[in-house]
Design goal:
The structure is a single chain. The protein is an alpha/beta fold. It folds into 3 domains: 86 residues, Winged helix-like DNA-binding domain superfamily/Winged helix DNA-binding domain (Arc Repressor Mutant, subunit A), CATH 1.10.10.10; 97 residues, Periplasmic binding protein-like II (D-Maltodextrin-Binding Protein, domain 2); 99 residues, 3-Layer(aba) Sandwich (D-Maltodextrin-Binding Protein, domain 2). Helix content is 42%, strand content 19%. It has 11 helices and 12 strands. The strands form 4 sheets. It has a 5-stranded mixed beta sheet with strand order 4-3-5-12-6, sandwiched between helices. The protein has a 3-stranded antiparallel beta sheet with strand order 10-7-11, covered by helices on one side. β3, α5 and β4 form a beta-alpha-beta unit. α1 crosses α3. 30% of the residues are buried.
Length: 322
């Protein structure tokens, strides 16, 4: 018959091992020493291995089998503590899991900061995260696959959805520094970009079907996601708009060049929290919305971003002669 130790036996075993003696364990557990000894003897009988060396030593010493079992006992009892904490949280109304859909327009640094703090604040809550483009956020919330969404592209109002603006982002038209458009040296016109390949992300959700945003070239390459678009633009295979937060480092290093193109609408892109009216968020999801609102409120405006870029790219002043 397979051994079937109880949680109580494992707790007594762990206490004896950690306190160093049966008498110390009896005091820690508030039990008679004889009860502690009996519990350990029963556990050893079930496992059919000795856990402590008792002969010739004043204090019990773990056998090799005992050392191995100690790690298992700690893991099992640790899992039990996690389960107890989760049950306590559920009784208090805390979600077991938060499913969130986040737009690629949300600055990645803000997302990482929020999720890092979320892990610390809600260690018992599981996270299901989807990051995607355009109408994906709305689709996942509407289908119930996401508890909350953080993004934009609220193309059509829906009475079953609650949206709240919590921040902004913006797109910038860019090209690789070796791309023909980057070397023109003056503000660009529609005529300059019409015959150049423009990279465009296709909305897999279908929410913006039949609508193109800032598509100015006659030649377009359509890709499935913003990461692929980013890499192709950096490789010089076309030009296009990318989230400012995504390309900050590329602009600073000169890998990408901002295109001065008036025809490209560069207004701020609102970021919303999105949820179903019939499915209000629990404490953890509510905290996450508030945390994103706090982080996104510190994102620079478009004017501030351009000022920062200009300052970073300004040549250093020459050293004065002695």
């Amino acid at each position: 018959m397979l051994p079937n130790p109880t949680l109580d036996q494992l707790q007594v075993f762990l206490t004896v091992a950690e306190t160093g003696s049966f008498s110390a364990a009896s005091r820690a557990l508030n039990r008679a020493q004889s009860v502690v000894s009996y519990t350990i003897a029963n556990l050893e009988a079930q496992l059919e291995v000795p856990l402590f060396e008792r002969s010739g030593a004043r204090q019990p010493k773990l056998t090799e089998a005992g050392k191995a079992m100690l790690e298992d006992a700690r893991r099992i009892l640790g899992d039990l503590q996690v389960m107890r904490a989760r049950v306590k949280s559920l009784r208090e109304g805390l979600e077991a899991e938060v499913s969130v859909a986040i737009s690629v327009m949300v600055p990645s640094r803000a997302m990482v900061d929020v999720l890092r703090e979320f892990r610390e604040m809600f260690p018992t809550v599981s996270l299901n995260l989807n990051v995607g483009e355009l109408g994906m956020v709305m689709d996942l919330v509407l289908s119930g696959k996401a508890t909350i969404g953080i993004g934009g592209a609220v193309v059509k109002q829906d009475d079953s959805i609650v949206t709240e603006r919590i921040g902004h982002s913006f797109m910038l038209p860019v090209a690789a520094r070796n791309h023909p458009l980057a070397g023109i040296g003056r503000p660009l016109t529609l005529g300059d970009v019409r015959e150049e390949v423009q990279l465009v992300v296709t909305d897999a959700s279908g929410r913006t079907k039949g609508r193109d945003f800032n598509v100015l070239s006659y030649k377009t390459w359509r890709v499935s996601d913003i990461a692929t678009k980013h890499q192709l633009i950096k490789a010089g295979l076309g030009w296009g708009g990318l989230p400012a937060s995504l390309i900050h480092d590329d602009l600073v290093s000169g890998t990408l060049v901002h295109l001065d193109l008036d025809a490209y609408e560069q207004g701020e892109y609102p970021i919303y929290s999105v949820r179903q009216l019939a499915n209000p968020p629990g404490p953890a999801a509510t905290w996450m919305i508030d945390a994103f609102r706090s982080r996104l409120s510190h994102c620079p405006s478009q004017a501030d971003f351009h000022a920062q870029m200009a300052e970073l790219q300004e040549p250093a002043a020459p050293l004065a002669a002695e």
